[in-house]
Write a structure and sequence with these properties.
The protein is an alpha+beta fold and 492 residues long. The chain has helices at 3-29, 42-45, 57-67, 86-95, 103-114, 123-137, 140-165, 173-189, 205-221, 226-235, 238-264, 272-277, 283-313, 316-330, 340-344, 347-359, 392-395, 399-402, 441-456; strands at residues 72-75, 80-83, 170-172, 366-369, 374-375, 381-382, 387-390, 415-416, 419-420, 459-463, 473-474, 480-481, 486-491. A four-stranded mixed sheet has the order 1-2-7-4. A three-stranded antiparallel sheet has the order 3-13-10. A two-stranded antiparallel ribbon has the order 5-6. Strand 1 (72-75) and strand 2 form a beta hairpin. The radius of gyration is 23 Å and the shape is globular.
Length: 492
C-alpha cells in the first residue's frame, strides 16, 4: 500500500470516528441531566441550546453559577468543575496550590506554541522562570524602559492614527489596540518593532503568524475531544496543518532575532530577551520564554482596554469624571503626557479600570487540573484528574459576591474616602492570585492608564450604533469581541 492510500485510509477512519463521536454527543443531550451537571438549574437549561437565551457561553455559565447555592457546578461529561466562589478560588490558588497545577492536558495543548515557557509549565521549571521574571519585571530600570516604549508608541503612532480617524473615519478600536499592544510587547520582549500601528496599518509576517498560532491553539483547548486535534496533527491536515505552518514562521523569526542578538552582543540592550540571555544559554528554551511573554502582554492589555472604552462609550458621565480628575492633576493642556507620579494621584481612573475588568476581564476563565482527590471549602468533592475552572467573568456578575448592583458599571465601589481600595484577589482574580499572581500587573496597569489618559484628554471616542449592543465574544484564550469595536473619533 503506497503512502497516498495510507493517508486516505487514515482520513476515512478519522472521518468515521468524528461522525460517531458527534452522534454520541447529541444522544447525550437527550439523556437525563445528571449525566451532565450536578446543579439543579441545569435540569432546565442543559436540555436546550444555550444560544437561544444567551449571546455568550460565558453568560450561560454565569446564569448556571448564580443559581447554584454553592456557586459551583460540575459538567460530568467534560469532567470539569466550574466555580465562582471566592473561597474555592483562594483554596485553588493559595491554600492547596500544589494540588492544582496547570497539568499535562493544558501543557500539551499549548506546547507547540509555548514550549517550556512560564505559562505552560509547573514545578521547578516554572519556579526558575518565575524567579527570573520577578527580578527583571520588578526592577525600576525595566519598568522605566517599558513606560518609555509605551509613551513613544502613543505619541508617534496611536495619536497620529486617531488624528487621521478624526476626519470622519470609522475605526475598529479593538484592532487598533491589538496592533498597539503587539508593537509594544515585541519591542519590550525582543527589541523588535513590527510597526503594526503605522498609518497604513501594515501587518508583519510575525504578527500574522502569531495571531494564527494563538487562534488555532485556543481552538485545541475548546475542542470537544483532544483526540480530534491529535489525529489531525498526526495526519497533518486541516487546522493542525495551518497551525504547524504558523508556529514554524513564529519560531523562525524569533530564532533569527536571538541569533542576531547573540552575534551583536546583548549586554547593552534593555529588552527582556537581552536580560534573559545572561541566564539562559539554550536558545530554544529562551525563545519559549519570550514568546510566552508576547502572548500574555499583547492580548490581555488589548482586551482590557477594549472593554474599558466600550463601557466609557456607554457612560459619558464617568468619562467626564476621568477628564476632570486628570485636568486637576495634570493641568488643562491635552498634549502633556502623564508621569508615574501623576497617575498615582488619580484613584478614580484606577477604579474605572478595575471596574471595567470586573465586568469584562481579559481572561474570562482559567483552568487547573486536580493532582489528587480533594474537597473544596463549599463541600464540592474534586476527583483526581478533574479539570477545575474558576470563572472571573461570572464572578464579576455574582450578586452573592458583589451585591445587588453587580451588573452596573460603578467605579465608586472601589473607592473609600476618595482613595482606591482594592478587593481580595480571590474575589477579583483578574490577575490570578496566590503564588501565580500576575508579575506584569503593575506594568499593564500603567500602560492602560497611559493610553486612557492620552486618548480621553484629546479625543471624544463614540461607538457606532452597532457598538452599543452587548459584546459578543469569539471563543479563545483571551476575550475578543466578535466583529470588533467600531468607533468614531472627534477632537475635544
Amino acid at each position: 500500500m503506497d503512502l497516498e492510500s495510507i493517508q486516505k485510509l487514515f482520513c476515512l477512519i478519522f472521518f468515521s470516528f468524528t461522525v460517531l463521536f458527534f452522534c454520541f454527543s447529541i444522544l447525550l443531550l437527550f439523556l437525563r441531566q445528571n449525566y451532565w451537571c450536578s446543579c439543579e438549574i441545569c435540569d432546565t437549561y442543559l436540555t436546550s441550546s444555550w444560544s437561544k437565551d444567551f449571546t455568550n457561553i460565558c453568560d450561560w455559565y454565569t446564569y448556571l453559577l448564580s443559581k447554584s447555592p454553592s456557586q459551583t457546578i460540575h459538567i460530568h461529561v467534560l469532567r470539569n468543575t466550574i466555580t465562582a466562589n471566592p473561597e474555592n478560588v483562594e483554596y485553588m490558588l493559595k491554600t492547596r496550590f500544589d494540588n492544582y497545577p496547570k497539568g499535562k492536558t493544558f501543557s500539551t495543548i499549548l506546547h507547540d506554541l509555548l514550549g517550556r515557557g512560564i505559562f505552560n509549565v509547573d514545578g521547578d521549571t516554572w519556579k526558575f522562570q518565575r524567579k527570573m521574571a520577578s527580578l527583571e519585571l520588578g526592577s525600576v530600570s525595566t519598568r522605566s524602559y517599558a513606560f518609555d516604549i509605551v509613551t513613544r508608541e502613543i505619541h508617534d503612532r496611536l495619536i497620529p492614527l486617531l488624528q487621521v480617524a478624526a476626519k470622519s473615519t470609522v475605526l475598529d478600536l479593538q484592532d487598533v489596540l491589538r496592533r498597539f499592544a503587539f508593537d509594544n510587547i515585541c519591542r519590550f520582549s525582543f527589541g523588535l518593532d513590527p510597526g503594526c500601528l503605522e498609518l497604513d496599518m501594515p501587518m508583519s509576517e510575525f504578527a500574522l503568524a502569531f495571531d494564527l498560532s494563538s487562534k488555532l491553539s485556543a481552538e485545541r483547548a475548546l475542542s470537544v475531544s483532544p483526540l480530534i486535534w491529535k489525529v489531525k496533527r498526526l495526519l497533518n491536515i486541516g487546522s493542525e496543518k495551518e497551525l504547524k505552518g504558523a508556529i514554524k514562521m513564529v519560531n523562525v523569526l524569533a530564532d533569527e532575532v536571538i541569533k542576531q542578538r547573540r552575534k551583536m552582543g546583548f549586554s547593552s540592550n534593555q529588552d527582556l530577551l537581552s536580560r534573559f540571555m545572561g541566564t539562559v544559554n539554550d536558545d530554544t528554551y529562551l525563545r519559549d520564554i519570550v514568546i510566552s511573554f508576547v502572548l500574555a502582554g499583547r492580548d490581555t492589555v488589548a482586551a482590557a482596554l477594549t472593554g474599558f472604552f466600550w463601557l466609557l462609550s456607554n457612560h459619558e458621565e464617568i468619562e467626564s469624571r476621568i477628564l476632570e480628575e486628570s485636568n486637576r492633576v495634570m493641568g488643562m493642556d491635552p498634549e502633556l503626557h502623564p508621569t508615574f507620579e501623576q497617575m498615582r494621584e488619580m484613584p478614580y481612573l484606577q477604579a474605572c479600570l478595575y471596574e471595567s475588568m470586573r465586568l469584562y476581564p481579559p481572561v474570562q476563565f482559567d483552568s487547573k487540573f486536580a493532582h489528587g482527590d480533594d474537597v473544596f471549602p463549599d463541600g464540592t468533592f474534586i476527583r483526581k484528574g478533574t479539570r477545575v475552572t474558576y470563572h472571573p467573568y461570572a464572578m464579576g456578575r455574582m450578586e452573592q459576591v458583589w451585591g445587588s448592583d453587580c451588573l452596573e458599571y460603578r467605579p465608586e465601589r472601589w473607592l473609600q474616602n476618595g482613595l482606591f481600595s482594592p478587593e481580595s484577589l480571590f474575589k477579583y482574580p483578574v490577575f490570578q492570585g496566590g503564588v501565580r499572581v500576575c508579575l506584569g500587573k503593575e506594568m499593564a496597569l500603567v500602560e492602560m492608564k497611559n493610553v486612557a489618559l492620552s486618548l480621553i484628554r484629546r479625543y471624544k471616542i463614540k461607538g457606532t450604533d452597532e457598538s452599543f449592543k452587548k459584546p459578543k465574544f469569539e471563543p479563545g484564550l483571551v476575550a475578543t469581541v466578535r466583529g470588533g469595536f467600531p468607533i468614531m473619533v472627534s477632537k475635544r
